[in-house]
Design a protein that fits this description.
The chain is of the alpha/beta class. It has seven helices and six strands; from the N terminus they run ααβαβαβααβαββ. The protein has one domain: Phosphoglycerate mutase-like (Rossmann fold). It has a six-stranded mixed sheet, with helices on both faces. Helix 3 runs parallel beside helix 4.
């Protein structure tokens, strides 16, 4: 009986209805950055080599999970944009495809919701790169239990049972995974 019900479900719904009712959001904190140059403005701080190496662990995990991202938006800060370029390249995105939005550098979590109103149609998976505490607070708008902190190069992946990004709400969300370089340190 169950098999018949599943077949009925799929044969009586269009492919559009079946596959476009889910949106996926990847929230990524920038890689570990340098404090070595105190004369640099905060938004110009570069990544540390250690941060790039730790990000490689996250990339390996994302590739293992066959992650597909339709659209990438990054804070314009050097450390976030460099992280977006590193992960974006691994996920087959060219640098010029990565959008910059100052909201991801300066806004609070509440104002980040504005990012979703201008997304191109057809974007089912979005990856954003930014900073704490904003990203942790933003992720916690959608998940239970709450996350204490998204560390550098950490990724929170949330699925939303919605058709349009404008309908994003905590009532229709589910945490798919939360990973950090430290969690992935001893994986083979």
């Amino acid at each position: 009986m169950l098999i018949r019900e599943i077949v009925y479900f799929y044969t009586n719904r269009s492919e559009q209805q079946i596959f476009n009712t889910m949106k996926t959001l990847y929230i990524v904190r920038h890689a570990k950055s340098s404090w070595e140059y105190p004369e640099l403005p905060d938004d110009q701080r570069p990544l540390l080599e250690k941060g790039k190496k730790r990000t490689k662990r996250v990339i390996d995990y994302l590739l293992e999970k066959e992650t597909v991202v339709d659209y990438i938006i990054s804070s314009p800060a050097v450390r976030a944009y460099e992280t977006a370029k590193i992960i974006g390249k691994a996920l087959k995105h060219h640098e010029e495809e990565i959008q910059k939005d100052s909201l991801l550098y300066s806004a609070d979590a509440e104002r980040l919701h504005n990012l979703f109103f201008d997304l191109p149609s057809g974007v089912d998976s979005l990856m954003i790169f930014g900073h704490n505490p904003t990203l942790t607070n933003f992720a916690n708008d959608f998940i239970i239990p709450k996350i204490e902190n998204i560390p550098t190069s950490g990724v929170v992946c949330i699925d939303f049972d919605i058709d349009k990004w404008e309908d994003i709400s905590s009532l229709k969300s589910k945490l798919r995974f939360f990973i950090t370089p430290k969690m992935l340190k001893n994986r083979k």
